[in-house]
Specification:
- The complex is a heterodimer of chains A (76) and B (347).
- Chain A is of the alpha+beta class and 76 residues long.
- Chain A is 29% helix and 36% strand.
- Chain A contains 2 helices and 4 strands; from the N terminus they run βαβαββ.
- In chain A, strands 1-2-4-3 form a 4-stranded mixed β-sheet, covered by helices on one side.
- Chain B is 34% helix and 16% strand.
- Chain B contains 12 helices and 11 strands.
- The chains are: A alpha+beta (76), B alpha/beta (347).
Chain lengths: 76, 347
């Protein structure tokens, strides 16, 4: 299992989702991706995108001014 | 057993595309959605930069629609390709800088490429005849089909019965009699259909979904092009046009003044790209400087920013001019008087 971090700071919706979407295409089922964002909307949008595309949201959290979403890549 | 037919839907996040997909699903069509990001899209999050708006629900409407419909959604970044649509629209602009017809042609063309690459059969949109003055007229809808090259593989389920038969109807993939004949600007038929399908809380953007239709935004974008001597932009440029108060006291520079804390925080992220003016003796807005300043320009710029600080009535305000290198130049300035900020500076 591979774990990667994706820097989505300063990006506004929907760019964090697009970055996650494009990154996931390069990863494999079971891999874990942690997206680090500054747009609070990412806490809703990345999980929504993950749900409709079959990926599992492991964690969402806010730390200071950062919003972090951790996703396990599904089987497609 | 007949083959499962697949349609790709253009999902804007509004009610019409939501309904168009559900109408197809009712007929057993498998649907996936695509949503295009041009950089000019109006999203709740852009407003959410402003702290006062942060209590409003933050959601991407296209994702919300996809989740309601139970379909996959692919969000496509078309920022670079879209520049040619905006710079050279064959069919011109609408009331502001909105190239609506060329935009629709471009998006349908991109959807056609996606359809062909992914083995889908046809494209659907939520368009309704007469709903939009440029791209959704009876005479311009065939132009979209012709110029995008999609021809009769484009189905508009909400108004299909007002239009010539398309391939999915002719082939019996969908039943024409179960499609709709909506027309005009009224939203009542769509709202009734939404009720029938049990959709609530759908997005109803009052000002459309694209900043290019906004008069004030168009003024700022035109100013950006004039100041650079060329019609060009990067994503950061068009994002910054959505934030703050834009003031151009001279052709060679512009100030972007945060209107409140949330915008200040957002603008702070650009400290390595733009010099900043910051009020140190009083509360005041973070300001970015876009352009090259002479010593006189810097004095005037600082006095304008001081005007927007809590020290505006004081005889003197202390400030810092922070260059992108991090070098800090302390300043003391007299705030401009209320009548000295010229209306023509305001973009």
């Amino acid at each position: 299992m591979n774990r990667e971090t994706l820097d989505c700071q300063r990006l506004l919706c929907p760019m964090p989702v697009i970055r996650v979407q494009n990154k996931v295409l390069q990863m494999h089922p079971g891999d874990v991706l942690e997206a680090v964002c500054t747009d609070p909307g990412a806490l809703n949008d990345i999980p929504a995108w993950s749900r409709i595309n079959g990926h599992e949201v492991l964690e969402t959290r806010a730390e200071n001014d950062l919003y972090i979403v951790v996703v396990r890549i599904g089987g497609g | 057993m007949s083959k499962q037919r697949k349609a790709v839907a253009l999902i804007s996040g509004g009610l019409d595309s939501l309904l168009a997909v559900r109408v197809m699903q009712e007929q057993g069509i498998y649907v996936e959605g695509i949503n295009f990001f041009t950089g000019f899209c109006v999203e709740g999050h852009t407003h959410a930069i402003r702290k006062k708006d942060r209590k409003k629900p933050k959601r991407n409407n296209a994702l919300w629609c996809a989740e309601q419909l139970g379909i996959k959604l692919h969000i496509l970044d078309i920022i670079e390709e879209y520049k040619q649509v905006l710079f050279n629209p064959r069919y011109g602009y609408g009331a502001n800088l909105n190239p609506c017809l060329d935009c629709k042609i471009f998006m349908v063309k991109k959807a056609k490429e996606w359809m062909e690459a992914h083995g889908f059969d046809f494209i659907i949109t939520g368009e309704v005849i007469g709903q939009r003055p440029m791209s959704q007229r009876k005479d311009t809808m065939p132009v979209v089909q012709r110029d995008s090259g999609v021809t009769d593989r484009l189905l508009r389920p909400l108004c299909a019965r007002n239009l010539p038969e398309t391939l999915p109807e002719r082939e019996g993939w969908v039943v024409r009699e179960e499609l709709y004949d909506f027309s005009g600007r009224t939203r009542k038929p769509q709202m009734a259909l939404a009720k029938k399908f049990g959709f609530e809380d759908y997005a109803q953007p009052a000002g459309g979904c694209c900043f290019l239709t906004d008069k004030q935004y168009a003024v700022k974008l035109t100013d950006l092009w004039q100041s650079r001597g060329a019609r060009e932009y990067e994503l950061d440029d068009i994002m910054l046009l959505k934030v703050g108060r834009h003031i151009r006291p001279a052709p060679n520079y512009k100030l972007i003044v945060a209107r409140e804390e949330g915008e200040g925080k957002f603008l702070q992220g650009y400290k390595r790209q733009y010099p900043q003016l910051r009020v140190t003796s009083h509360g005041g807005p973070l300001t970015l400087v876009d352009g090259e300043l002479s010593a006189d320009d810097l004095q005037l710029a600082a006095r304008i920013v001081a005007r927007y600080s809590q020290g505006r009535m004081e005889p003197e305000v202390e400030m810092e001019y922070i260059e992108t290198s991090g070098h800090v130049q302390p300043m003391k300035v007299v705030p401009l008087g209320p009548m000295d900020v010229k209306p023509e500076w305001m973009l």
